[in-house]
Amino acid sequence: VMWAKDVGRSVDYLESRRDIAKGKIGLMGFSWGAGMAPLVLAVEPRISLAVIYVGGFYLQPSLPEADPVNFAPRVKAPVLMLNGRFDFFFPTATSQEPMFKLLGTAAEHKRRVVYETSHAIPRNAMIKEVLDWMERYWGHTR
Asked: Model confidence at 142, in pLDDT bands (50, 70, 90)?
């Protein structure tokens, strides 16, 4: 609950600034933050785009009110998910794929790219995918 409130306050601050495009606030979660992304995306509708970078569902038990599994179907923002096939924190079949499938984002607005790596992906490939995703939804970014 506190994480979601912190994100909401952060978005409040960004929206108060004249140099920030209010409709172009995104979330990029990396590893642990990527695992928590569904929770934040489900409760903060002002986030208009997301990148889940080497993430998936955690396999440890969690309280229902903080379990991303319960929030994933409520996600509506476009989501780009970047994973390594051999990730030892977020296994493909039991963590990554279930998260991607459960995301409530319409199929045409979610994309998953899998690299032949573990819990890291090539930086240049990540940058290209993220910029392309931002350009698709927000227009020219380069």
From this structure: low
